[in-house]
């Protein structure tokens, strides 16, 4: 491989690089939220129509520090404040978890707290099992726990949508300590289950020989081009994406697995995690990280097809 292949590619930082606040020393979730500047509160306020009448059955989730509306929700929606949302995670610190980064997305509509579990190995590669905890105020869901393992050598996330283990689940929030301990124990069990299942899946991918032609066929199936109807921009974007994938196969840490399904998935995650689009927006990195937390659509669709080929 010529040296210029990697130099023309991109800086491969973790997807949350430059986002949120790096936590120096936060032994509890409350201290992590305070250190990250996210200890503001949200209040439910009534919504009025143009005539000044209260709109029934709906309310506005409003941030106290600036009166910004973070979401319009139904009357049954229950606010969980940031300082309280992640209490159950503190018990995971006893299992070796370290709070590393915390931040917000979409102007505060979603809050995320990233914890790192003890390092492990998959296919002799060092893997850092990150867990992302998400609280939201826009009505999109409860507190979520999202697996975000990272292959250290390339900073690729491996949060594949496995058929044998959940990569994301919701948790409840209640005030009593016994329930918090139950939530923590359940969360730890699901983390362990996911990492075991991920290792097994990666081994199957690594054992399956996949040619470039088979890989290209999967990509073309998911990204068809109609040269008679599609715009030049769409055609160019699809072809550029395909070129990025095949360039990624030549990266030094992907090359040993290049002719396997695992190597192909490393190329997919590499492009999804690190490449820069032709039209770069000011909030691109934030939007990309938001997609990766819950499962990047491009990674999910490619993984589904590649896993079917392996099965």
Present the secondary structure layout:
Layout: H1 4-7, E1 21-22, H2 29-35, E2 42-48, E3 54-63, E4 69-74, H3 82-85, E5 98-105, E6 110-116, E7 120-122, E8 125-136, E9 143-151, E10 156-157, E11 168-171, H4 177-207, H5 212-222, H6 232-248, H7 261-274, H8 284-294, H9 297-310
Antiparallel strand pairs: 1-5, 2-3, 3-4, 5-6, 6-8, 7-8, 8-9, 9-10, 9-11
Helix pairs in contact: 4-7, 5-9, 6-7, 7-9
Describe this structure in words.
The chain has nine helices and eleven strands. The protein folds into two domains: 4-11 and 205-310, no CATH class; 21-201, no CATH class. Strands 1, 5, 6, 7, 8, 9, 10 and 11 form an eight-stranded antiparallel β-sheet that branches. It has a three-stranded antiparallel β-sheet with strand order 2-3-4, with no helix packed on it. It is globular, with a radius of gyration of 21 Å. Helix 5 crosses helix 9 (297-310). It has helices spanning 4-7, 29-35, 82-85, 177-207, 212-222, 232-248, 261-274, 284-294, 297-310; strands at 21-22, 42-48, 54-63, 69-74, 98-105, 110-116, 120-122, 125-136, 143-151, 156-157, 168-171.
